[in-house]
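Known limitations

Structure tokens in this collection are predictions and should be treated as such. Users comparing against experimental data should check residue numbering before alignment. To illustrate the layout, the record for Cyclic nucleotide-binding domain protein is reproduced below. The input appears on top and the generated tokens appear beneath it.
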Amino acid sequence: MTVLAQYIKSYFGIVSDVEIDEISTLFQKEHLKKDDFFTQKGNRINKLSFIESGMLRIFVNTDKKEVTQWISTSGYFVTDLTGFIFDDVSRWNIQALSDTVLYSISKENYKKVGSIVSKWNELEKMFIVKCFTTLEERIFSHLSMSSEERYHYFFKHNKELFNQVPLQYIASMLGMTPETFSRIRKKTGEVNS
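Generated tokens:
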């Protein structure tokens, strides 16, 4: 069983092994080298991908600065959701931070999943609700926590990223300047963690 199949089974528990096998055939394995783009702002995106290994950074350049929206790691799905679902151009750049292995499903094949999995409408809704809940939690943390509290929360739940990605990306993702991030990091003694 592939990592993708194992993830589908653990995430969507009510999917049968036969359905998992059939769904898995709709995905194609892809490799991105470090710095390759999964998609770029303004391009059309017609795939949803599961990250088997590696990391992808979701970001955009504004008039004033580059903003990192998220860093996706192994075991998660990635796409520009608005572009994928609404057949619009990508709003985000998505770039590999390391060599990355993906399982990608085209929009056309994604539409076939409903005919394979009898409870797909329910499962898809739960998947989107989980995504929405994660987004809500992020917005709430930005509105209710201080920079230092956001730093501690993120460090506690994503410690491994601090040694794997440039810290200015994490600072941006947390809504702070690299200087503020560095000052908090130094204050907490997590500089060499």
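For this record: The first strand starts at residue 27 and ends at 32. Residues 1-117 form a domain with the Jelly Rolls fold (CATH 2.60.120.10). Please report discrepancies through the issue tracker.
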